């Protein structure tokens, strides 16, 4: 049944009976009580109800509920309240580590290594040259197609080389796909590492400078990027193409490097070697410093990761042991 | 030793100190279970389990009203028992003697100094009140038992129920209003001292 007074008044009346109102509230309510019959009637009903309830005596325990030595239950360890969060913390830390790995939080540092060695391999092999007959036909076809793009891309890369590596990445932007997300890092790494490789004078004898071979590596990657979406046969995702995972990809790399080495050797005639040399010298110390910082950073991250894992394991172990003990 | 010292000693593993606390509060814990459940046998089990649980979890007691903390444990166990009953409904048993006759005055309601006719009236009154309580929703029943039967103040009830003070006030008012029809006729059965008390109230 709906009360004759509002819910708020019902609460006020109930509090009034328990003497829980402050003097001002009490005075206001008493003033209203003297004027409102409904309020007075409800108060009277509540008063009687409360009185009947309070007349009920407390029951007496039928027996003593004291604990005997045989019935003493295992106590919860005093550490439990603090360590009750341990499993949650351990799970969170583990999730953090896994997320860090999966989302590629440390990914640039890890992928750099294979990319560098591979670009070095290409750079060293490029001037030596390998006979095209050794290549797979499909690879050769690819490399031929790639070769048609070489001139224009080499020119573009040479221009881009003057800018920061991030801008190099943005050069072939229209052809980029979602697969290529990893490419800029590897590209940048290849771009940085190539000049550091000691480059023998080209057998062609046209003096391809280390910087140019670096550009060559860049160009190779750039061409592959442009080629990937339109090329049906080698359809190697760029991430794989950058990493030396497939022999075909390696072949494509070598072949295209070789083809372009010739083009590059020719175009190098017009490139002032002195300028290229200056750039190499200027970049080398910065390169070493950043490599050193990169490797230190990688170690620090690795140590943090290992520490997080250890903490997570310790917390989980502590929670487990305590749970076992309190269950006994 | 006062209550705080007994609690401290019990936390250190002093079982005697804990048992002294049990003796202090066992009527209160049993009453809570009895009024919540309406039957003596399960209330007894709940009270025993409540003290075992209290001893086991004494480390979680962080000060405040100890009786409110105990009553929260007992109330939670009552809710578990009520949930079990909903899953497996049973017919409530009236207290019976060995011959299967219903006992008018079960042991938990006997006051040795009471006259037999008074005892009879009081037992009748108790049963009537219990029936009214049984018809209340559980949350309303809990707050009425805590405040009107056990004598806790609002803040202790809030601690025992882990609810805000406003919720306690509102539930108590609505519970009292809901009980008014059921309890109306019992007013006349109240002993004189209760009815006279009315004059002293606001």
What features would you describe in this structure?
The complex is a heterodimer of chains A (328) and B (202). Chain A is mostly helical and 328 residues long. Chain A has 13 helices and no strands. Residues 115-184, 186-253 and 265-282 of chain A have low confidence and may be disordered. With 202 residues, chain B is mostly helical. Chain B has two domains: 1-88, Orthogonal Bundle (Rna Polymerase Sigma Factor, Chain: A); 114-202, Arc Repressor Mutant, subunit A. Chain B contains nine helices and no strands. Chain B has helices spanning 3-11, 15-37, 40-56, 66-87, 116-134, 138-149, 154-161, 165-184, 192-200. In chain B, helix 1 (3-11) packs across helix 2, helix 3 crosses helix 4 and helix 6 crosses helix 8. The model of chain B has no long low-confidence stretch (mean pLDDT 85). The chains are: A mainly alpha (328), B mainly alpha (202). At the A-B interface, helix 1 and helix 3 of A face helix 2, helix 3, helix 5, helix 6 and helix 8 of B.
């Amino acid at each position: 049944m709906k009360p004759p007074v509002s819910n708020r008044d019902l609460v006020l009346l109930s509090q009034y009976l328990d003497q829980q109102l402050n003097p001002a509230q009490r005075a206001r309510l008493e003033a209203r009580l003297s004027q409102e019959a409904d309020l007075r009637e409800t108060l009277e009903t509540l008063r009687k109800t409360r009185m009947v309830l309070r007349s009920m005596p407390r029951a007496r325990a039928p027996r003593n509920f004291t604990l005997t030595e045989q019935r003493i239950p295992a106590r919860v360890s005093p550490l439990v309240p603090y360590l009750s969060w341990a499993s949650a913390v351990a799970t969170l830390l583990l999730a953090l580590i896994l997320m860090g790995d999966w989302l590629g939080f440390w990914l640039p540092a890890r992928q750099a290594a294979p990319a560098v060695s591979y670009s070095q391999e290409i750079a060293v092999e490029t001037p030596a040259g390998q006979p095209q007959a050794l290549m797979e036909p499909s690879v050769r076809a690819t490399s031929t197609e790639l070769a048609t793009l070489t001139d224009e891309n080499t020119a573009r890369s040479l221009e881009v080389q003057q800018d920061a590596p991030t801008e190099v990445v943005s050069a072939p932007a229209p052809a980029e796909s979602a697969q290529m997300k990893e490419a800029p890092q590897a590209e940048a790494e290849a771009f940085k590492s190539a000049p550091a490789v000691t480059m023998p004078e080209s057998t062609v004898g046209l003096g391809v400078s280390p910087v140019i071979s670096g550009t060559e590596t860049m160009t190779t990657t750039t061409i592959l990027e442009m080629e990937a979406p339109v090329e049906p046969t080698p359809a190697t995702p760029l991430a794989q193409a950058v990493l030396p995972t497939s022999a075909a990809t390696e072949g494509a790399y070598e072949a295209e490097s070789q083809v372009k080495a010739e083009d590059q050797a020719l175009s190098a005639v017009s490139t002032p070697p002195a300028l290229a040399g200056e750039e190499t010298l200027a970049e080398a110390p910065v390169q070493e410093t950043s490599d050193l910082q990169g490797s230190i950073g990688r170690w620090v991250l690795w140590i943090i990761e290992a520490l997080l894992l250890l903490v997570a394991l310790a917390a989980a172990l502590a929670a487990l042991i305590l749970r076992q003990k309190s269950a006994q | 030793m006062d209550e705080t010292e007994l609690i401290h000693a019990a936390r250190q593993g002093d079982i005697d100190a804990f048992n002294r606390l049990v003796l202090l509060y066992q009527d209160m814990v049993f009453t809570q279970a009895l009024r919540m459940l309406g039957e003596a046998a399960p209330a007894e089990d709940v009270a025993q389990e409540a003290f075992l649980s209290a001893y086991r979890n004494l480390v979680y007691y962080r000060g405040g009203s100890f009786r409110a903390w105990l009553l929260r444990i007992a109330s939670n166990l009552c809710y578990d028992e009520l949930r079990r009953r909903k899953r497996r409904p049973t017919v409530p048993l009236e207290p019976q003697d060995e011959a299967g006759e219903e006992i008018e005055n079960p042991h938990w309601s006997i006051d040795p100094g009471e006259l037999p006719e008074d005892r009879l009236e009081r037992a009748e009154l108790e049963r009537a009140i219990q029936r009214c309580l049984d018809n209340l929703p559980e949350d309303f029943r809990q707050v009425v038992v805590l405040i009107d039967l056990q004598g806790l103040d609002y803040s202790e009830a809030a601690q025992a129920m882990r609810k805000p003070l406003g919720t306690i006030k509102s539930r108590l008012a609505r519970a009292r209003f809901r009980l008014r029809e059921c309890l109306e006729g019992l007013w006349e059965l109240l002993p004189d001292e209760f009815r006279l008390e009315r004059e002293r109230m606001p």
